[in-house]
Give the backbone structure.
Amino acid sequence: MKIGVVTVPLYAKTLPEALRYLKKIGVDAAEVGAGGFPGDKFCNPKELLGNKQKLRAFKALFSDCGIELNALSCHRNPVHPNKEIALKSHEEFVDTVHLAEELGIKKVITFSGCPGDSPTSQYPNWVTCPWPEDFLEVLDYQWNDCLLPYWQKAGQIASESGVRVALEMHPGFCVYNTASMLRIRKEIGNVMGANLDPSHLIWQGNDIVASIRELKDAIYHFHAKDCRIDALNTGRKGALDTVAYSEEAERSWQFCTIGYGHGQEFWKNVVAALRIAGYDDVLSIEHEDGLMSEKEGLEKAVLFLKDVIIREDPSQMWWA
């Protein structure tokens, strides 16, 4: 396994500065935004695809800095009921897939998306309960009329490019937990897998080790991000929370630097479960802790992971 970083918090730097910094603090790999919510500050697919010289220079920069370019991310909503938003999301996804193919990267991180509740909707509608029965009708429309038809075509584009799609299971979108992840994988095929970010599952009540065991080889990427549950706020209002992320004192839960929501025993069990499931790739630190600067959050996360990560291939051990 390797330690990686989602490079968004480093956008104040140039890409060479960011990569040199990551190497200095002990990072092995980078996940780079190529559009959508991560933005394209470090990586503009249209620019790179249209200029072979820039593409070669971009690729060489990672090699020169000793950082593996492990994944491209492009998070948006390709099934948004607003057709302009949906089209932009789709175009960014396709460009990111084609760039990944050119760079020899085997995975693109994104969201499944979430449609509205009907063809005339203007906003996404995330369904979280089965009653009244209207909600089940909405789910049927979302999955069978929107989500599956879209990903059957988009998944084919990725498959033809030799790229796998790692869907981040994220509340607010149709794929948000292990059950919905395995459903879309069953319908679309193995081109679809999971970007497992524990922070989005913890507050939903998931046991992360149990989730890893259920997903098994469907795990294509992993975000190393923690979640701290505020027991008092959760006790008085529950886990579903629309309070702004910046209002930490009022929230039921907060994203936090790995190790600040759960300790070493928890994360060692998670890493061991990943190893058992056959995942031997990057643990990509995503810094979204509102209480720490980018520097402090990233550096503390790297130090924490160094103590819990399993680096060596067990097949090379003396007992194998």
About this structure: The beta strands are 2-6, 29-36, 68-75, 107-110, 164-168, 192-196, 219-224, 226-229, 253-256, 282-285. The first strand starts at residue 2 and ends at 6. Residues 134-160 form the longest helix (27 residues).
